[in-house]
Specification:
InterPro entries: Xyl_isomerase-like_sf. By secondary structure, the chain is of the alpha/beta class. The protein is built from four helices and six strands. A four-stranded parallel sheet has the order 1-2-5-6, with helices on both faces.
C-alpha cells in the first residue's frame, strides 16, 4: 500500500509540475499564427501526457495529441516509439531512435515539454538521463531516487 501511495503522489506531483511549467512559461508563436492557440495569450502551453495513450505507440500518441490541437507532450519511460522502430522512449534510446523521435515531433509541430517519472541507480546513469533530456530539449523532468 505504501508503494501505491508513493506512486499516486508521484503522479499527482508530476501532473501539477507539468501544468505549472506550461502555465508559467514564456510566449511562443506556433506555426507562425498566434490565433491558432488563444491560450498562449495567457502564457499557457497546453499539452497532454503521453501516458494517457500508454496503450499506443509514441507515434500514435502524437497523432492523437495533434488531432486535439495540442502542441506539447510529457513523454514517459517505456512507451514504444512506433514508426517502424522497436525501441522504447528511455534514456537508452539510440541516436537513430532520438533522430526519429525528433522528426516525428517536428513533423507534428509538437514539443516534448516534460519527461518522467524516471530514476537512476548511480551518478553515471543520472548523466545518461540528463543527456537524454538535453538531446530532446526536454524542459521539465520528474525524477525519483531508487530505494527511498
Amino acid at each position: 500500500m505504501k508503494t501505491f501511495k508513493q506512486l499516486l503522489w508521484s503522479c499527482v506531483a508530476a501532473t501539477a509540475l507539468f501544468i505549472s511549467a506550461c502555465a508559467t512559461s514564456g510566449n511562443v508563436v506556433q506555426n507562425g499564427n498566434r490565433a491558432n492557440y488563444p491560450e498562449e495569450k495567457l502564457g499557457w502551453h497546453l499539452g497532454s501526457q503521453a501516458y494517457t495513450f500508454r496503450l499506443f505507440t509514441f507515434e500514435e500518441a502524437l497523432n492523437k495529441i495533434d488531432s486535439a490541437g495540442l502542441r506539447y507532450v510529457e513523454a514517459f519511460p517505456g512507451q514504444k516509439i512506433g514508426a517502424g522502430s522497436t525501441e522504447a522512449m528511455t534514456y537508452e534510446l539510440s541516436q537513430e531512435g532520438r533522430a526519429l523521435v525528433k522528426k516525428m515531433l517536428k513533423d507534428k509541430g509538437i514539443t516534448v515539454w516534460a519527461y518522467g517519472v524516471v530514476g537512476a541507480k548511480d551518478e553515471a546513469e543520472w548523466e545518461k538521463v540528463f543527456q537524454f533530456a538535453k538531446d530532446l530539449g526536454i524542459k521539465v523532468g520528474s525524477y525519483r531516487k531508487f530505494g527511498g
